[in-house]
Amino acid sequence: MGRLVVCEWEGRSLTIEEALDLRTQRPASAHHFYCQECGQRVRAHKAGTTGQGAHFEHLLRNPQCSPGSGPIQHSTGRAQASQTSKKPPPSLQIKWPDGVSTMEPRPDFSRIHALLPPQCGQREFKPTLCIGLDIAWFGGSKGNPDSQYDCVVAAVVGPDSKATHLDIKRVPLIGRDPDGSLTAGAIGKVIDRYASQVQSIVLGIDAPLLSTQVIPPRRARAWRAADRVLSDARRGIDQFVGGSNGWHPTLQPGAPLAPRVVHLMDALSRQHGFAVWNTKNVQHERLAIEVFPSEAIWALKRLGGYADHTNADLIRSYKKLKGVALREEEIRNLIQRVLSPVGPLIGFEEGWQMIEDSSLSWLLTDPAWVQGTEYRGGKLLDDTIDSLLCLAVAIGYAKGESHVYVDNSNPDDGHIIGPGIFAK
Known about the structure:
2 domains, alpha+beta, single chain
């Protein structure tokens, strides 16, 4: 059984190291740590003298909770469930019901309008090259070759959804590409291929891109203003709908920025004129925006998607399938279930259906993860889906069908953009 090393505290994710540090500073707060899976109280334990690492433990044993399926990994700074087991927990086995994921009416959030993230995006939907990038913040894990790729997903979109075209590429990170030059080069080739056909470019990246934070002593990471805005808004919205029920995104501190991400953005700025989104350049012709796929899934649910699912475990199971052999039908159903709410909620249903179909065709012929007649679950699947979610947000931004978390009093301390509109 693995160690539980991340909890929820005041609506935010907290590592065991941060919790132990917090306990020494504010003892009363240490009694309010909660398990992210079952919501029950947990306590923080220091490392033992017999070699046991620091960890959280439930105050009351909960046999229905499965945080012991593995420790939380932090190689990218976003919490992901451990992928060390050969099979996912039984509750995460992919047993999809027949039919297409249904939608439900968008909730009336008018009573909590002040809590809602504002609408953002381009004022006019014009031909746009939208790119989604799931980036390995540190070039992947040394011990996991499947993590040493970046996945670049690009689509030319415009008012005529029938003209939508999809382009997907895995970028092998030779030597783990510490300066981001291999990924910058791959994005550059996509831009060169389509720049003459579009008027703007929106690049959605699964990584923090801006921060003004100075990391305090004894801390490895710090919360940015945007992280706190997202956390506060998410808690208020979940409370309004009756609780998170497991759908809340697992938020990690966004500072400091990963050096590889900084190098990539420097290269894209110099070579292709990209600017990182802020409140002053929202109409810039070449924008890079920060996307958090877990927030995208949560937002899709809160705006009426995944109506036939009451819990997020099945939707997010694609992150817990390392070592699991998947059949073609399972891949089809998984992609359909995760991505099907996107089109209606960004007002691009027909075009998104083409993207969904094309991405599935690419996945089913991608030799990187084919294993006989089956497919290897793990990072090669995880990263593709997260890249497609980043692409969805980029398209939503191009259509003006997206929302943003940003602290207007400190707009340079990050932003997080998601799909769909809360504050109509």
